[in-house]
Design goal:
The protein is an alpha+beta fold. 19% of the residues lie in helices and 30% in strands. The protein contains four helices and eleven strands. Strands 2-11-6-8 form a four-stranded antiparallel beta sheet. Strands 4-9-7 form a three-stranded antiparallel beta sheet, with no helix packed on it. Helix 1 packs across helix 2. The longest helix is centred in the first third of the chain and has 11 residues. The C terminus is likely disordered.
């Protein structure tokens, strides 16, 4: 099984609550309506090797702003295979248009990430060298699902633990 799946509406709303300032009142009705409009990642053509991830919100990246803009996608990558990885890149249009980049260069989603305390919610952080406006519902990023190999002497026995709350706040 390999698929993109919506996180729960509760987790989506919780994400906004956890990242806003303490006294900020999150409009849960507006966030719930936004959740209903989320568009699942999809291939744009039969020859596409990547799944397009669509922006759930209007995104504005400001030229040479050194801070990153955080975008919650509302989706997780689910896999029952331990030898595949989902790699996420800025959409090629924005990469060439405004040198848009991800905070982690290539966002890696492993098969066991969906077990985290945030339901495996794919949250991306971007910045750009030029002003870029990305309207809600339009392509934001590209996700490539690919197999990977392990070394012959690999002996890893560890499983992913839930995402620490501190790490979640930083993202």
């Amino acid at each position: 099984m390999l698929k993109f799946e919506k996180i729960s509406q509760e987790e989506y709303i919780s994400y906004f609550r956890s990242t806003c300032p303490p006294n900020y009142d999150v409009n849960t009705d507006a966030v719930a309506a936004e959740y209903q409009r989320l568009r699942a990642p999809e291939r744009e053509t039969v020859g596409s090797s990547c799944y397009t991830i669509f922006s759930p919100v209007d995104v504005r990246l400001t030229r040479y702003d050194t801070s990153f803009v955080t975008v919650p996608t509302g989706f997780k990558f689910v896999s029952n295979k331990n030898d595949v990885v989902c790699m996420i890149y800025p959409h090629t249009y924005y990469g060439s248009l405004g040198h848009m980049e991800l905070a982690d260069s290539v966002h890696i989603v492993n098969a066991d990430d969906y077990k985290g305390d945030n339901e495996g919610h794919i949250v991306l952080r971007f910045r750009a060298a030029e002003d870029i406006n990305i309207p809600a519902g339009t392509p934001l990023a590209l996700a490539m699902i690919t197999p990977y190999l392990l070394t012959d002497d690999d002996d890893c026995q560890h499983f992913k633990t839930p995402t620490p709350k501190l790490y979640r706040k930083l993202h």
